[in-house]
Amino acid sequence: MSSIPARPEGFQTVARALETAGHPHAPVFLDAAVRTSQQAADALGIAVGQIAKSVIFRRRSDDAAVLVITSGDRRVDEKKVAAMVGALGRADAEFVKAKTGFSIGGVAPLGHVAPLVTLIDRELFRFEEIWAAAGHPNGVFKLSPQQLEALTRAPVVDVAT
Question: What's the CA gap between 52 and 65, in Å, rounded?
Answer without folding.
Answer: 18
